[in-house]
Amino acid sequence: MAYAYLFKYIIIGDTGVGKSCLLLQFTDKRFQPVHDLTIGVEFGARMITIDGKQIKLQIWDTAGQESFRSITRSYYRGAAGALLVYDITRRDTFNHLTTWLEDARQHSNSNMVIMLIGNKSDLESRREVKKEEGEAFAREHGLIFMETSAKTASNVEEAFINTAKEIYEKIQEGVFDINNEANGIKIGPQHAATNSTLAGGQGGQQAGGGCC
Amino acid sequence: MFLEGSPEHKSGSARYCYKMSENGRPAADLQENVKDNTLKEETDSDSFYDAQSDSSADVAPTRKTRKRPENKPPPELLESPKSAGVAENVSKASTQTSVSEGGWGSWGSWGKSLLSTATATVATVGQGLSQVIEKAETSLGIPSPSELSTQVEKEQEADAPPSSSEENTAEGSGTVLGSAMGMLSSSSMGMLSSLSSAVQNTSKTVISGGLDALEFIGKKTMDVIAEGDPGFKKTKGLMNRSSTLSQVLREAKEREQQQTAEKVTSETEKKAHYGMLFDEFQGLSHLEALEILSRESEAKVKSVLSTLSGEELTTLRDDLEQIKESFSLMEFDDEEVDDPQVDDGENFTKELTDTLKKLHISTSAERLGKARRNAFERIVKIPTEAKQQQDESSEQEAPVITCTVEDAHCYAITSLAELTARSIEQFHKVAEMLLHTSVEEVTALEQAKVLAQITIVLCKEISVLSKKFTACLATIGTNEKGEVLNPLITGVFLEASNSASYIQDAFQLLMPVIEVSHIQRTAESSPR
């Protein structure tokens, strides 16, 4: 249960690209073909391990509908990572990426790690956006890139975890000020209480890396 | 109604608190009042405690809507003291309550009290509240009333042979609670001096019910505990950085986690951590999101007000004032609270659905209804006495009980955490829809009133559930020692009280959202 860090993620992108499905696949390891439209924001959480440390991902899955945009923008702040998702079978969702990216950059902190995700890679026959295009866009804007399938779970774990790895590296490099919670990173409880009685036992299992 | 086995104790605290907050008088005066009340109690108890027929373990902990006292200078002097008609006052208190106004400005002090209650829970579970209270009492120099200790002894003796009649059981548990409550009231008396300043400031707040006393104890207790606990001080230090409720809650929860990890603890502690469960049900996330919307709305309202002048400004100010009022006055229908029958939540879901409809926004009570059904399913799992007698084929050494008190406690805490998290989620969704859609069928003021109604429905349900769960606990725990059972029962009430506070606080967060919604509507209807 105890974690070394907590990272806040947001998932953004056009409606219907599979944001909620990606989240469900990541947190529950299942796929739900029919999904209610997300209202505002929904949440998911999962623990992952990076470099032997327990990291809790707190994921804010935002509504893709245009009409919710002004509300969902409010939630960007304080995110350490963002998954920017488009649908490889719908060219328009790819075309809108620039707007999404501007929005994200404008309303979040500048160090936020952004992972570009081309979802629905299982639908190869209906592909409208080439993988190379995604890669090029990512390169141009300094994003990480991956094609995923929420349906087959292909690359889903990787997308979430690689983002976390990148954030973790930035922490190690000192890019993120982990004491500033506006960065979307929180130090876990066992870090915060190094002075109290850390009587081995259970606490020792996941002794977090040194900070402070 | 505060149904309580031994009303002398319980009501003492209830009335006492009520008077305390209404009059905001200095400690000495109040203590006298308490004595008076306690005396008077015996004569009018019949009119107030309507029957013993109900399970005596029933206490209505959370029905009163109120805000936690804040450490703000008193905005004005409070109503002049009314010494006459205690009974009248009390009945008034039970039909009409209010929450203090606004107060979102001072997150800091507010959060502090929250943290201490949240952390108090840890102490409750970890150390046993009675023990803690004792500690608090000693340190405060409050002698436990001798009458009380006799009660406790009696109760412990009575533990031995319950002649299996339902009445006996009820009596026994009633005493447990009664004495617990008595202890609380006596402790809170001694705390008065320190509390009175805080209480004086909550001009409109009517604090009543034993649970509020309990909550105070929790806070006070934490201070006592904190003295020897550097970890807690550390947390307090962290507090200064944090500015929002969800952060404070998160930190409190993390402390819980940490304590669980550090100590080799009993099953109960591992399973029944309210804060952790609340977070698992995504209560914290929804609260955080709601806070964001609330904060932004507040800023928006301010900026709009700063651009207006003259008549426009006056009109808007008046409108907003009216909206504010519906966030500070809440009426409680007393009679409905006192329902000992707990159904599967159908009525609750229906009432909630009907009320939500009046908002004219697209939102459903589905998730809350589910949470309520889950709670019911957990209640059903706790064997009542009749069922116990049939189920004699259980494996444990206690042959008639298939569900331990720890299990029942865990069910209770889980249910409270789930229902509360879903309540916060509901309010969060309402906030999003209010900002998203422009409603024409109903005014913002009317919506505010509906939201107040919803808050009451939710708090009432928390109260009903906690009553039911504690009644179950008392029933299956008749053979348990007081020091095992009491902290569990107290823990449920404490968390029920916290639940109601979170729900009311979330309701308060909706105020700026409603205000923005109102401003949007007026802007649309009168284009300039």
TrEMBL record, chain A:
Keywords: ER-Golgi transport, Golgi apparatus, GTP-binding, Lipoprotein, Membrane, Nucleotide-binding, Prenylation, Protein transport, Transport. The keyword Electron transport does not apply. One of its GO terms (biological process) is vesicle-mediated transport. GO terms for cellular component: acrosomal vesicle; endoplasmic reticulum membrane; Golgi membrane. It is a lipid-anchor. SMART domains: RAB, RAN, RAS, RHO. Pfam families: Ras. One of its GO terms (molecular function) is GTPase activity. InterPro entries: P-loop_NTPase (IPR027417), Rab_GTPases_membrane_traffic (IPR050209), Small_GTP-bd (IPR005225), Small_GTPase (IPR001806). It comes from the Eukaryota. The keyword Chloroplast does not apply. SUPFAM superfamilies: P-loop containing nucleoside triphosphate hydrolases. It is found in: Cytoplasmic vesicle, Secretory vesicle, Acrosome; Endoplasmic reticulum membrane; Golgi apparatus membrane. Its main location: cytoplasm. PANTHER family: DRAB11-RELATED. Belongs to the small GTPase superfamily. Rab family. This is Ras-related protein Rab-2A. It comes from Silurus meridionalis (Southern catfish).
From TrEMBL, chain B:
Keywords: Phosphoprotein. Residues 32-42 have a biased composition (Basic and acidic residues). Residues 25-104, 138-181 are annotated as: Disordered. This is Family with sequence similarity 114 member A2. The keyword Phosphoprotein applies. It comes from Silurus meridionalis (Southern catfish). Belongs to the FAM114 family. Residues 162-172 have a biased composition (Polar residues). InterPro entries: DUF719. Pfam families: DUF719.
